[in-house]
Description:
Elements: H1 6-19, H2 56-81, H3 84-106, H4 124-137, H5 141-163, H6 169-197, H7 208-220
Amino acid sequence: MKIKWMVPILIAAAVLTACAPTASAPLETAASPETEPVSIATEAVVSTPTPDSQTTEEGLTYMREEEKLAHEVYVFLYDKWGMQIFQNIAASEQTHTDAVKSLLDAHNLPDPAAEAQPGQFTNANLQALYDQLTAQGSLSLDDALKVGAAVGEIDILDLQARLADDLPADVRLVYENLLSGSYNHLAAFTSSLLRQTGETYAPQYMTLEAYQQALNLANAGGNGNGNGYHGGRP
């Protein structure tokens, strides 16, 4: 099929802008947890729902809904708790989901979110994950910040897995920029949790080593794209 190259490239540039820092305070890098990672709440966390094997087209369809989920979880948590970080990162996630939508258009693929209402997903696993994350994030502000970090972990793992595959150049460019933004989001939520509660975040989906690496990348400037989180809006 004929690919409309310029649209995704322009959207990728917009993602870079949305993820750029707007403040100069240093990142509070959390110390390594002394215990094994724990779940958000007492109930078991839904495992990362990405299918083991997907075509590029299937992956784009899935990522469109996953980025929609991230945006809508953060909007829900902002409405619930009124903490600015949720609104800031929700705005960034809107740019992410729009970027994936541009890829769907460029590759002549249908949009699974075209007629979906907030909190509605065609993918059953993502629907279950949204329901659980919003329920857990409603328990307390501390739980909400952990949910925010958990969404960042899920995004990172899924994007890393997709970037390990052969991808068209336009898809790879957008995914790399989304990954950089997701590092920043994870760092922002874990830093806020530490300031809010004094609690060091324990990763819920990533290994401890991968989690620390993600924080280091965020502090150093993201995924090599100059988009580090520095205490302000990611």
